[in-house]
Write a structure and sequence with these properties.
Layout: H1 3-13, E1 19-23, H2 27-36, H3 43-54, E2 63-68, H4 70-74, H5 83-89, E3 93-97, E4 102-104, E5 112-114, H6 120-130, E6 134-141, H7 150-169, E7 173-180, H8 188-208, E8 217-218, H9 235-249, E9 256-259, H10 266-279, E10 286-291, H11 293-303, H12 310-329
Parallel strand pairs: 1-2, 1-10, 2-3, 3-6, 6-7, 7-8, 9-10
Antiparallel strand pairs: 4-5
Helix pairs in contact: 7-8, 8-9, 9-10, 10-11, 10-12, 11-12
Length: 333
Amino acid sequence: MDTSKLIETANAIVADGRGILAADESSPTIKKRFDSIGAESTEANRRDYREMLFTTAGAGEFISGAILFDETLRQDAADGTALVEVLQGADIIPGIKVDKGAKALPGHPGETVTEGLDGLRDRLAEYVQLGARFTKWRAVYNIGGHVPSAACHATNAHALARYAALSQEAGLVPIVEPEVLMDGSHDIDRCEAVTTRALRQVFADLAIQGVSLEGMLLKPNMVLSGKDCAEQASIEEVAERTIRCFERVVPAAVPGIVFLSGGQTDEQATLHLNAMNKMRKDLPWKLSFSYGRALQAAPLKAWAGKAENREKAQAAFYERAKANGAACRGTYA
């Protein structure tokens, strides 16, 4: 394992004013997105849509990396150029989602564990050959009643750590994603408590597995009020609570934290990230983004599955990328 290359890649991903485009939607998920705009989810349409995002002029100024789905990593652009090469030409580092999704956790109704460790070493070796330089694995934690349970915390933290160790062994930077969902009526106190516990267990397991903290990135949720909570925390409170939580549990050796948007609106995700970076300039890690819907909702709607809307959609994507690039510096207005 060449730790120096891992560190170089991890720091390049969280370079000042840049973040990640999460374009790793599974086939069922992107079908739902396409259904919402009346577009058919064919392989050609999926390729055209993602190629449109990747070729947006100037987007590389704000987008440092793109997380891809297995299909996309293997696809060619319309002109025959590999999409990986299209990204590299735009100074965007290609990454790959490697988990196999959240499955029901036996004996624990309403909870899940993410699968995909079987055969992962061989898949990682192939992804390196296809041009990937980083990976992503997502674990999911629901809040409600007596969940998440100790079993949910333990099984997901172990899987995240095993995945991260295998990724680094293959020379790939792991993005570790423990997501506490904002679904539910819980308040921000409960979210902070669950997020703190999840991250403590994840970093304990990363240490057990010998993962290099300098050669990884963390992709967590922000500390938010539940979506159905009667009292919604302000932008400033979300920023303060999130920073407080991470200062308590995220080691300073981690180069960067790339937030997921997690059901927030485009504007909410940008404003919360901006508030954190405006509030504190002395944090040990970079605070950036790894957004899917928060970057894609506007261009997807503008595109509407029609080739003639390509420039309009690219303009919408550029504006969202630029806004979040500014939020990484705390200068978004």
